[in-house]
Specification:
3 copies of one chain form a homotrimer.
Chain A: H1 8-25, H2 35-45, E1 51-56, E2 60-61, E3 64-65, E4 69-78, E5 84-87, E6 102-107, H3 108-111, E7 115-116, E8 138-139, H4 142-146, E9 152-162, E10 165-173, E11 180-186, H5 193-211, E12 218-224, H6 228-236, E13 244-250, E14 259-262, H7 270-282, E15 286-289, H8 298-301, E16 310-314, H9 336-355, E17 358-361, H10 389-398, E18 400-404, H11 405-412, H12 416-428, E19 432-434
Parallel strand pairs in A: 7-8, 11-12, 11-13, 13-16, 14-15
Antiparallel strand pairs in A: 1-10, 2-3, 4-5, 4-9, 6-9, 10-12, 14-16, 17-18, 17-19
Chain lengths: 436, 436, 436
């Protein structure tokens, strides 16, 4: 069964809908632990069946230890006139992620090393964290820094760093088979839109869409804090990862740039070939890049002890758009049509792996006579069915049990679903058998 | 032994001779069965030793059934003034191949759906057949159609579709070895010159030429009706196809276009490499294309149950010249010099596979001393024999039993026969041994 | 351990020093045997520990026989006025190498066929030899030939061709392992600078430099007469060649052209990849060429019975500079900076094979937490150590026992030593284990 292409109206609506969900999640203060993260997962859970897992502080997950849980009530820097010159309430990026509690008064000189700005983009607030080294600090626009006078400042970080847990969400959609497709997206960034509310809303929309369809493969959507969350999930599921047949990390999928696909460590996994196939046939500009051990959680899934077939689907890669990890990565940076296009392309790639298979020509000696089965053009040169004759010929010729339908699509340069349709017609006429 | 290059005069004569034979065969009404086909085979048989096989109507050959035999006495469309406005006698393309008998009177309205023309080429008669769906029809030039008035027409197709047989011809030239080279060409098209009298006359000339020479390999020339004939031959010989070491389908080898070679399904069979080698060293423009399951009988030989090493040697591929399957594919479209050039190139490729082999350097530790054997340039810098020293060095270096002489020619970028000549010199001096 | 980069001053000094040694060796009359060769080896032996081997005339070495030893006392052509118009004393190229003794008087007519010149370069003396065909002759500039008058000439070649031996030198530097690196250079050419005093002085300098360092691999420097000397060495060591893990022939390494590297017969031996890596990262223009069985002693080391991983490191290849095998290949053609650059590049390639290895990530499930080990950038975005973080990530990701550090450098496009340094840091922190 082919995953249906949503029609044009549905796709446009979906773009707006996804952007709306991103807007809803935008203000929450997410981090790798804490209540903002939990609330994000809860809201995803209102749309798709989501199991929320809690991994207690102090748990060992391979080489890592789950850190204390971090929560913030309030945080500010207040000047001598009682004005909050930096305020967590106005933008959660102002506080360095995982800042330890502090309450103090100090002159600007002493405060200054705790303040981070971006002089090249003087209106933007940077995003900084310090998960594993206890410290505190604030981020602010460079212009705001320049406006500070030399007086005394009151600094308050009313946060807790305490035993608790790391939360992640898992949406499992069982299919006919145990083989599963892993879609992973990181949920640990606060008010940043492309990185990675875009990934969250596209993953949620895909899960919602797939939940309503019959599925050959099973699908597992992970909403995990970056790095530590993926490692925690891998640790909990280390005995079962062999069921992951295909996987994608989704990140930065909302900006207006071209699609970028980064291959899995294997480089020629089916998912790598399926995404490349879809992008090539999309007619849109796109970029294919080889695996490298930087980026997002594909680093963990592709670590040598796992080496899973997991690539990373993006538009503009992290660090290649100037707004990356700043307050300018906001709801204006992501566009409904880009979110919708990402949704459509990922779905198309999933439709390839969902429908791929290996067939065997039951009549391999010479060509079978397609004409008498109504599968060949008639005397007048018109063909009888809407099946591509070239695809029929290619499927018959290459179905010798060594080639998958995707292999056949690649070698024939035909689009996958025209090959699949030809195989279906041949299966129906008893000329082909699909291998289990 | 090298298949001798025919000299320039012989080649020019041969071009004229082949064109003459094409002219002789041109008027015959060939189809996939019938007396025109049989007469064509009989005339080929006057030039080369040919066994003519008859496969009875109704025989099962894999997924196909041999159809009734078709013969035509006469066929026309006659107007109310008694004039034959379409007449099989004037051009056998006028009758749709395998037209069932009919004798009727009808107005133009009713006749019109039975008439096929090519509006873009209003003077040309198209070529159409309907082998497996019983019908009748006529083909005519579009201008002739426009000249028809609205009156009544008398239609006569005096044909028979009756139990009989499908005929094909087989010319086998035994060599020292059982391994054989298959040259197959289709003989089912009526008055069309490039497709495929060109293939028929070049194949006949090659068989005639090879019959007079000592041969290491055996050669089998098939003159078969397209598709059904090749399938019938494969069915009859299904237990013996493993002896086919190399094969070529010859078609459209007479037009003035560049040579096109379509590789076998395997893509790197020896014949694929041999033809590519010859074309590369010919200095002529040429096109190499990958296998695809369309085209001619290579589709049957390369079906997955056989997967034989058979490529297709052409000049302009079918469908890429406007005259294809029309009355404009006539004796003017094919040229003596093109026929001769095709002959020469196919022969050169056969000479490569005929002379290829694997040798072993009997003195593999360091180079042997060629100088004392008169195989190296003397003190004055002049070499003693007409053997290419580079070829000697390459043959010695790569003859470790894993490389064939064609492998060596390819890696060294030397022409095959200079490598073969070097190997022969080294064999003569006891420095090399050829593997059986 | 990394072979240390000599600093810039050392390299400049080394260039001058090597050129000086070439100047010292230049006047000696080397051939494939004889006292000039022996004296050359003796002088090399004053710089590096050198075993000098003598292989007696008449010894069988594979397909070859060691020829008589050749020595020359004097040789000239004297005109009727008693003037030496061609004189071995003024330039040893004047006498064809291995000229048999002769003492005769003859007119120019009779002498003329014994005289070789280069009309296109009328001031240059060509270099010719006739090792295996007994003859005699002289080489002279074309202008000198034109100045000869038609009178009688006295010809004297006061040489001996007598039982003796072929000499070669071997400098072995034992390392921790028996696996060895073979550096071979030919020592049989008389007063020619680039071909091959350049190879001799660079090899000598490398041996001197390596002798003073700890070495993981063992190194064997061969100073051998071309062809026959390499074959003699291979014959004597035929049971032990499997210990040669990497090898280079050095020749024509002193001219001002770009570096050229000719790959071993295998094409992808570690040394081929190491040299290509070094050249690519050098930023300098360079040329990589595939193996061919011409050139220098790589022909013998790469003969099919040995197929050793030995490439050829050159600047401008033999025959591609006009001065090749003429008196214009003199001390001005080779430049101190080119010699030094060749030294540096070969050393860098040796440093790659010396330091290459295969590691295993001991923490292969997900990434290890580098931050707590001080191997990752701190909160402020500054990293703690001078180790390239990308290299750390690549080494961890690819160290699954199938990839060498050079493989990792190639796939990551990082420079080898930054990969090695990352591996060393990870080894130190117990995150990696190096395979024996």
């Amino acid at each position: 069964m082919r995953l249906p292409d949503p029609d044009t109206t549905t796709i446009a609506d979906l773009g707006a809908e996804m952007h709306g969900f991103a807007s809803e999640l935008f203000p929450l203060c997410r981090s790798i632990t804490g209540d903002g993260l939990r609330e994000t997962l809860r809201r995803i859970g209102t749309r798709v069946p989501l199991e929320i897992r809690e991994v207690p502080t102090g748990s060992k997950v391979f080489d890592w230890t789950i850190p204390p849980e971090w929560n913030v009530r309030t945080a500010y820097v207040r000047n001598s006139r009682g004005e909050n010159v930096v305020d967590f309430e106005s933008n959660n990026l102002h506080l360095v992620g995982y800042s330890a509690p502090v309450s103090a008064r100090m002159p600007l000189d002493e405060l200054r090393p705790r303040l981070t700005t971006i002089p090249e983009h003087p209106d933007w607030i940077p995003y900084r964290t310090s998960y594993y080294e206890e410290t505190w600090g604030f981020c602010l626009s460079h212009n705001a820094l320049l406006a500070l006078d030399d007086g005394e400042y009151e600094v308050l970080v009313d946060s807790t760093l305490a035993a608790g847990s790391l939360s992640y969400g898992e949406c499992y959609l069982a299919g006919e088979r145990e083989d599963e497709v892993l879609i992973s997206t990181h949920v640990c960034h606060p008010s940043l839109a492309n990185d990675n509310l875009s990934g969250i809303v596209v993953a949620t929309a895909l899960a919602e869409f797939l939940a309503s369809l019959p599925r050959r493969l099973s699908y597992r959507f992970l909403f995990v804090p970056g790095t530590i969350g993926a490692i925690a999930w891998l640790h909990a599921n280390r005995e079962h990862v062999s069921r992951i047949a295909h996987g994608l990390v989704l990140t930065c999928v909302g900006d207006s740039g071209d699609t970028t696909y980064k291959r899995s460590r294997r480089g020629d996994a089916d998912i790598d070939r399926a995404v490349a196939h879809v992008l090539r046939h999309s007619g849109d500009d796109h970029v294919l890049i080889d695996f490298s051990p930087d980026g997002y959680d594909e680093r963990q899934y592709c670590s040598p002890g796992f080496d899973l077939p997991v690539g990373c689907f993006m538009r503009t890669p992290h660090g290649q758009f100037p707004e990356y990890h700043t307050s300018a990565d906001d709801l204006d940076l992501i566009r409904p049509e880009s979110l919708a296009d990402s949704f459509k392309k990922v779905l198309a790639a999933l439709s390839v792996v969902e429908n791929d298979g290996v067939c065997v020509n039951l009549n391999p000696h010479g060509e079978p006579q397609l004409g008498r089965r109504g599968l060949f053009r008639s005397a007048g040169g018109r063909k009888r069915e809407s099946i591509d004759e070239r695809a029929l010929a290619w499927v018959l010729n290459l179905s010798d049990s060594t080639n998958s339908l995707l292999d056949i699509a690649e070698r024939s340069r035909l689009e996958f679903h025209s090959v699949r349709a030809a195989a279906d017609a041949l299966l129906e006429h008893g000329l082909l058998e699909e291998r289990a």
